[in-house]
Amino acid sequence: MDLIIGDLSLINGLFLLLALGLALGFEFVNGFHDTANAVATVIYTNTLKPTYAVVWSGIWNLIGVLTSTGAVAFGIISLLPVELVVNAGSGAGFAMVFALLISAIIWNLSTWYFGLPASSSHTLIGSILGVGLANSAVTGAAFGEGVNWEKAIEVFQSLLLSPPIGFMAAALILLAAKVLLKNPALYQSPEGETPPPIWIRGLLILTCTGVSFAHGSNDGQKGMGLIMLILIGILPSIYALDLSIDAPTFVNLSEASKAAVVTLDKHSPPSLSVQGKEIDVQLSSFLKSGNASDRTFSALAAKNHAIADKLIGKNSFQEVSKEDRRSLRSDFYLLAKTIDKLDRQSMFADAAEQKTLINYKKQIQRVTEFIPDYVKVAVALALGLGTIVGWKRIVVTVGEKIGKEHLTYAQGAAAELVAMSTIATADRFGLPVSTTHVLSSGIAGTMIANGSGIQTDTVRNLLLAWILTLPICMFLGALTFSADLFIVIHIFGLK
């Protein structure tokens, strides 16, 4: 157990390989589970042959992942309990990562087997909430304490609103098209295997491309966020901070830290000193409860002094010792989250102070919320390969079993146009949204608008799967976290 391979113990090396394999496995399953939605319309309108469609979609998923901002990735991480994120390399941190991935993969494979296009976003978020609830029970905290409910509600809103938006928007686009675009070819169903007219074919390929790209840029980030959490926990000397930042970025961070010292000291009563472990206790308590006090500001000021001391005299993170990089990242994480929450509560009445601290938070995010290109490539390949391998079950449901009649060209274009726009908008604001829900709802909306009707059995099964996803995945996440925690602590001896 004590054998060292580089900076890694043998057991940590094995855990690293297992965790990365699970994370890429999650994206692989996500590929043939979710991305299949993007190719359903082009396949069922004979726009592209299945082989060409899935390869084309896989390529654009890859491009979407590679060009993504990372906002969704770290938005997902912010749902996790603070103490587990800060201690990602501990036994509890390993248990958290394994629980999230195992429970999400189990549910995704189960719904895929039955051809139900359930949401990978709902799956992962349900698992996260389950882990948070289990962690609060294991640590003896108040039940549910440590779950970022504010962020969870924000995510729930995007996930709950996207299906009705998809349904109504696709229906309205189809109705508007019938008024504005009089070409009857657009509203016909494919005949045999004959492809549509070239201009319709181009439109459908364009919307398929847009959905695939948007899916990669949004859903692909979920795996990237978890992989970074794994790498930060196991290899903090390399991944805790962005070692590749240029000198001006480091200088901006250092200057922002100094400016924040002045601002925060104003809010910290001299007679109220918070030191040692109490600093982290106070900040973590505030992040859990949302109740700020003078001790919160004193702890925040003390935390920033500790950060400023570690940065003084340094010109880059390369000059920070390997031992200090993990603690510095933890300090950054707690400080940035605390500033963000205080700002949301309007605790900084002075506009200049608010500007100083928000700028500091942004500088912190620039050096902590980064994703190396090779992580993006690995996730992109897993997502693309998944699309190519397992697309058929979900495609059959979307293409044949939602409506009572065959999908027309206009219906396919309307549903995918809405899906593409909704996902791209959610990506812009760093919110995870379900490609599955938006596109499936969009197709159902076009069927109703077209007077085609829907197959009630399929829609009922879809709705049931969507409703059950969150509670089942919360249960799976809590159960697997508890089991994994026992294994990593009592069998492998990780604390």
From TrEMBL:
GO molecular function, one term: symporter activity
Primary location group: membrane
Membrane topology, as annotated: Multi-pass membrane protein
Highest taxon above the source species: Bacteria
Keywords on record: Cell membrane, Membrane, Phosphate transport, Symport, Transmembrane, Transmembrane helix, Transport
BP terms from Gene Ontology: phosphate ion transmembrane transport
Pfam families: PHO4 (PF01384)
Subcellular location: Cell membrane; Membrane
GO CC aspect terms: plasma membrane
Reactions catalysed, as given in the entry: phosphate(in) + H(+)(in) = phosphate(out) + H(+)(out)
Transmembrane segments: 59-80, 92-115, 121-143, 155-178, 198-216, 223-241, 463-492
InterPro entries: Phos_transporter
Family as reported in the entry's similarity comment: Belongs to the inorganic phosphate transporter (PiT) (TC 2.A.20) family. Pit subfamily.
Protein name, as recorded: Phosphate transporter
Lineage: Bacteria, Bacillati, Cyanobacteriota, Cyanophyceae, Pseudanabaenales
